[in-house]
Amino acid sequence: MTGNVIVGQSGGPTAVINSSLAGVFKTAKDRGAKKVYGMIHGIKGLLDGEYVDLSNKIQTDIDIDLLKRTPSSFLGSCRYKLPEVEGNEATYTKIFEKLNELEIQYFFYIGGNDSMDTIKKLSDYGKSINSDIKFMGVPKTIDNDLAVTDHTPGFGSAAKYIASTMKEIIRDGLVYDYPTITIVEIMGRNAGWLTAAAALAKGEDCEGVDMIYLPEKVFDIDQFMNHVKAVSTKGRSMVIAISEGIKVADGRYVFELSDHVEFVDAFGHKQLAGSAKFLANKIGSELGIKTRAVELSTMQRCAGHMTSRTDITEAFNVGGAAVKAAFEGESGRVVVLKRISDDPYMCITETHDVHDIANIEKKVPLEWITDDDYVTDELIRYIRPLIQAELSPIMVDGLPRHLNVNM
Amino acid sequence: MTGNVIVGQSGGPTAVINSSLAGVFKTAKDRGAKKVYGMIHGIKGLLDGEYVDLSNKIQTDIDIDLLKRTPSSFLGSCRYKLPEVEGNEATYTKIFEKLNELEIQYFFYIGGNDSMDTIKKLSDYGKSINSDIKFMGVPKTIDNDLAVTDHTPGFGSAAKYIASTMKEIIRDGLVYDYPTITIVEIMGRNAGWLTAAAALAKGEDCEGVDMIYLPEKVFDIDQFMNHVKAVSTKGRSMVIAISEGIKVADGRYVFELSDHVEFVDAFGHKQLAGSAKFLANKIGSELGIKTRAVELSTMQRCAGHMTSRTDITEAFNVGGAAVKAAFEGESGRVVVLKRISDDPYMCITETHDVHDIANIEKKVPLEWITDDDYVTDELIRYIRPLIQAELSPIMVDGLPRHLNVNM
Known about the structure:
Number of helices of chain A: 12
Strand order of the largest sheet of chain A: 3-2-1-4-5-12-13
Shape of chain A: elongated
Oligomer: homodimer
Order of helices and strands of chain A: EHEHEHHEHEHEHEHEEEHEHHEEHEE
Strand content of chain A: 15-25%
Largest sheet of chain A: 7 strands, mixed
């Protein structure tokens, strides 16, 4: 071990992204790293000279355990996308100057497919200038839309939160003696994995949701209204799960059928929300049924009080595996999860070329979506192992304790 | 013990209303009740002849423990308000016929101030016809707006969920390197108790929310925008908690300043939602700051996975105390909680005349709201003991298990 380590977090937060940070930090320290730096606000912070010596922030074993339980990006995040090298050499020169200044030999970036683009560009550029800095991607996203890996850390906990909360919303929604319809909007711009997790609510003690709509399939609003009408004329209450990303045949989001304002983020993504409200209003006005629109919003990605132990352990492990691989000389690669068996569930880590992963979205296969507006048992069997077991929050004075960000 | 017992649930669900049902059932059985019936959908169900023998639904000790952890009204709910006796004698005759038919001697109703009106009317009518059926109210509401009682079962768990979730939303909201503003909308039509619980998020490990707006105080939209501007020009991100019930000086809800549709429920209450979205849009368009509106919606009242052990125990106890009082001859009364001490927290049950409680709303005292858009330490000290300790969910296959409603 000669050089130092630097690690950053990027993209939308998850409940377990800090478990990966803990995995990188602890494994690097255990394997003899001199200094482990954290970029503040990802690569953008590095460019601005904002970083910390993580040993000042993570000082004890209990800090490691608190960090694992702290949702959202401990180091701050960014949505900054590195420009192409051609014509922007100055940016790359600056980054490598910073890295050399800090004597960095190992660079880890925890994020989704946009963040893996950063690893790809930096490792490609590094090769071109014969730098021997190793660049490794650590996967993270609640959306589960990363290619190659069986699933992404962050997804299991969000799925567990969604399934648990759906059970509660279903209990709440079916309580009255007149029909009511609750429409729950779930994150996942182009991939329906998270919305599909609503199907896990169904069981011995729960009726489950009535309908599930994923963005992979064109949303037919007439079919939707007919389905609602058919069930509601029997006097039954319903709970329906929709993805924020469902679109009608002409390509517009359902949300865009209303007159709501739109925002666009730094990556050119539209900020979505409001499809549930639009559909609830439509049902209310056209069918005269009492409706409620619920957005799981931020809560579904930061519910540190309700994580999957399976997920949080895998998140830690992918961080550790990235360090191990880099220390053994790998670069330009991403740690991926490979499922060995469904029952009993067994999963290992491997590494894979970042070029096959950056900027690619993995969607729910169409054959896992049924014609009667639900998902197949195969899809449920895929998700179920990922929500298993719990990591209890450390409760202090009645509330889950997090690792203090400011020191 | 000669006669039977009947119990019903009414109004909006809570996470612990079934703990009170468990308290009524278990205490009645333990004290020798022959049959304990449950009205399906409250008094409305009784009128329609819908009830069950609860011994068929709650069969084992583990059923009792599952029931305590099952959110929302196990027996179903209603928002039916009994008419005045005068001119509606037929309704009352019918109810007492049903009660006599089932040989009911003790009648328990779990609900908020609208539901206590049912206890008041039935016990007054009962007296007028010399019935010796005992009528007792069991308090329940997340809103904490019931008179006389120190607080209401259901409030502590909702407050714990809100404070925990605010901590997570704050972590999520402060993650980027540019200012963002998150506005969180919390339930409580006319009383700000629940919104005030957002203040509990602040602590060693959390910056807390920046501003809190309760419905007890007129919402000054100019002052609000100035406050936001003053903080955001320093480049700081903010998280703001507002009650769904905040109103501007002319009496309109903030929500009504937009062109959103309104609903009115059976009690004549407006269905509120959208004030956060309205304010977020206003900040976004006028100040050009990235905003997000979050509604805690149904989740805050049905989060059975995140209850306060203090609350769930008190909920059980008020059910038991109602049975004890009725069996000892009391009627036309409500079980209330009396706080003996803040530190250490000690609280006992008493009973109180329902006429002082029905239809009355207890609001947050104005002196507990500060001029700089926050709440006093006194208010925080009042709420803090109510969120203490946990009752772990019984986890099965990765999800919290509830008592099966359908058998």
